[in-house]
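Support request, please re-run this one:
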Amino acid sequence: MAADLHAPAQQSHPLDIDTLIVGGGQAGLATSYFLSRAGVEHQVLERRATLGGAWQDRWDAFVLNTPNFTLDLPGMPYPGPDPEAFMARDDAVDYFRDYARRIDAPVRTGTDVTRISTSDGGFSVETTDGTWRSRNVVLATGAYQIPKIPPFAAGLPRSVLQLHTHEYRNPEQLPDGAVLIVGTGQSGGQIAEDLHAVGRQVHLAVSTCPEAPRRYRGQDVMYWVLLAGIHGPEYGVNALRVGQLPSPAARFACNPLLSGTDGGHDVHLRALGRQGIRLHGHLEAADDGELTFTDDLPERLATVEAGFGQRMGRALDAYIAAAGIDAPEPRPAPADDWLPAPEPARLNLAAENITSVLWATGYQLDLSFVDIPVLDAWSYPRHVRGVTEQPGLYVVGLPWLTGHYSSIVGGVGVDAEYVAECVAGR
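Re-run finished. Output below.
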């Protein structure tokens, strides 16, 4: 088995190789598959001690938000009996480890890349396992490097436990008392459901991540997202391609609020409120034990509910029509104008017995180890279809690299195959 699950011994001299892939998650492994097919000598460097990518950083009850049929890795479509089911965290980690074994990926785990620079027409790649020299480098790190926590978090009392979702594992981690979750993307919505189900009082600071239907026009919504994203341009539908984004910052927008738990379901914030979860506006300040929220919850809920229909839903409908697919007509969401009793704009943590704050505020992309001037103001590589401005330097697996599908398991192979062709062509 080429996939090494243990940290290697330190190297005392540079190692020469044609191509290095930085990152052993789904993007790195998919690129390895295509490079192997092309006969390109390469090595995958993974900073974690074991394979399984960022899925290992999720909480205990985490379930993938994409159905099993989307686990369509190059050379290994989902082989199991439940394509419409949703895989639990540990099963997903095992799935990717099995993929690495099946494709005989040359992986070194426990090897953190600390600096990449140009050298003699190629690259010098410094790592915790010594220095490598390569003709090509493929960045496949994903976008989950640095948990984002607002600076005013430092103003919370020390008696309140603060965890980013990156560190959260289960309710037993948290002291008795109520929990404030800041952010209503996929992580915030699912953890709110989990904590409420075990009897915890949950406060939820609402962001503007759009809700989306789990089932849309007779299929799981991800079925259409992948088809429209990958094949839409063949029919003139480009709404899910990167060129149609309103701004570069939109590459980091949150994913639609959905869940894969209990067989997969929609997550509706108003429904959570009806169940007893206390909804607040955006958390904008913290002063010792006093929190300040915006007073625009009704407008926020309306924005969250309208988001899918304004962009993604239109793109999926356009693709279905252009491709001539016979699919049921979309069903409008039932009208719902329920609102909770108004919450005060200022909340006292002690008075509400809030003893924990979970920051479901996403991640910041960090490619600071790339000591080559190819990054834009968002630390995102400047590129065309994964080919950066620096000859021999490539990138795969980032959100919206070429389209909405670029960081999704079932879509990452599209960019990986193209990049591997470019590498082999050099």
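Confidence is low (pLDDT under 50) at residues 1-11. The helical segments are 26-37, 89-102, 186-197, 221-231, 269-274, 297-310, 312-322, 412-425.
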